Structure prediction request, 722 residues.
Amino acid sequence: METMRLDVAGDGIAILTLDADAPMNVVNDAFIADMEEATARIAGDDAIKGVVVTSAKKTFMAGADLKQLVNGFETLSVDDAYAFSKRATDMHRAIEHSGKPWVAAINGLALGGGFELALACHRRVLVDDPKAQVGLPEVNVGLLPGSGGVVRLGIIAGMKTALDLLLSGRSVGPAEALKLGIVDEVVPADRLVDAARAWLATGPDAVKPWDVKGWVPPQKKGLTVPEDSAAYMMAAGGLAKSGYNQPAPLAILNALFHGLQMPFDKALTVEGKYFAKLLTNPVSRNIIRTTFISKLAAEKGARRPEGFARFEARKVGVLGAGMMGAGIAHVSANAGIEVVLIDRDVATAEKGKAYSAKVLGKLVEKGKLAQDKADAVLARITPTDDFALLEGCDLVVEAVFEDTAIKAETTRKAEAVLPTGAIYASNTSTLPISQLAQASQRPDQFIGLHFFSPVDRMGLVEVIMGKQTSKETLAKGLDFIAQLRKTPIVVNDSRGFYTSRVFQTLIHEGAAMLGEGVPPAVIENAAKAVGMPVGPLALLDELTLDLPLKIVDQAIAEEGDAYTPPAGVAVMRRMKDEIGRSSRKTGGAFYEYPEGGKKHLWKGLGEHFPVKDSWDVEELKTRYLYAQAMETARCLEENVLETPQDADLGAIYGWGFPAWTGGTISYIDTVGLAAFVQESDRLAQLYGPRFLPSAWLRDKAARGEAFYTPAQASAIKETVPA
Prediction:
């Protein structure tokens, strides 16, 4: 067997050790075939009295091979998907029908299909290690557990616990797993297999409760039980908040509801059918491809140029101790790198270091970090106003005010001290890297590293290549981001780069809707209904109207009549210049912020922007999605972006484009390029040229092309587990 080995001891206890030729054990065709063979051997061997399932890896078992699922999407029918689910389901039922008691000795992480295997066993013993998390996180990839996990968890843990774990997708550690009843015993690592063997030595019954004649499903009375009825109603109401963009939560709710009322095998059939529908739905493909496969590929260096030695930063300079600089200093020190944090005076630099002290202090309070480790991180940050301390730095990240002259002066002062081989990175979000590099003596070593705020919580970094940035510099920049354990995307230099450029289409679309007479509450709710985390008017309050207007004014100054201002500019100028409301910092713009109360839309908006009689919420949702997707397509056409993977990662992790779409480019492919072009033409006639497809996009649609090809669906060779 390729993925496991079976050893039988003299006492009749069989040890089935999962050990695939991969970093983790995963559910794929090879594993299922081996488990079928092993189970048949166990069932047919009278000398075997019981089975312990464990792992030779540091983890027990992850879920399905997501790469296999994504690659099969285009050709997989619903019947094929159900057959895949049924085979895994039958594999687990064979364990239960083998006539031998099985114990899962869970030595580490057991998620998805790995925990479904454990649930099919007669007992679960979990190692007492906080890293040993168990759970069924399939909802996070647009799926549900497809081989009995929903039904078994509902019976074992009860409906309420099952709903919590299945709909949240969260995993739990040993103590909580034991409390919830989803494992039976928690023991130290050196006693794990012994504890499993000890239970088997008691001669336990090999028949599961649901296989005992006369067993009654736990909710056979259905909704006639008031408590159960209320729980399902509350769960259904919670799903409504998401606008049903993601089909998996509703499918989970239905599978559990029906599954707990039916005979066990019938319930498994229902679960499998829901799984098949989800697996052939583009939402699951989109989520898996971008948030798992493309993300892991980026973090493993998919965009790193070959031929350069691995770079490791040992000492980093951070220029500017404001919110961004303080965050960059924190994540660098947390990665074990010595940091010199520079600002105009020592007191300001100390404030930047204090940010790390605050973040670390909260972790210590919650018991998530030991005090000595927090002290070690803080000790790596040296706050100063002395550029001379940059001597010996491998890399510098400049995070000063967004002003070309200030950045140029900072560059010259830093390079006067830095070693000749040091990389100089600017954290600018809008200023062209090629322009900023003009102040550098070594423009080939100048690159953009655009972090997102708050840096310690936002995982994306936008890496911007200037016209003279070398491939070696790109490789070193990506290696530094890997040190910080963040996710990079690579873009080429342009106004606003990628994320800032496309994000602006969202806020401008919202502002334009206000000018058209759409009620502000509808504008905000339509954005949230489509899956955006925050409405565009609320975002503008946080950003300040000054920022998007400054970007527009710079473009007008540089390009003149060749530049077409975005659709929301008139509303923004009126709010700022005529009405005198520009941001939350200045007391509020579109929102009011009462002291001690919740923020709410400013009541004066109706006076300045009268509401029209009718509007179509679905049309508003379409405009939000199409505006952002169209601008992303332009970025690919102009070679600002080079891959659809970078586009989709930037969309989801940069500004919160809805995950169910897979990102802006996956959204276009899901709609179909020809249909997207046709709908864009309709929107352009109604709302303006911002929606108008280019000749390049029309030609691509006419040729029947898509942005992703089957080869691009999986950008890495390694098996990617759930």
Observations:
- Confidence is low (pLDDT under 50) at residues 711-722.
- The radius of gyration is 28 Å.
- The longest helix spans residues 617-637.
- Residues 532 and 658 are 6 Å apart (CA to CA).
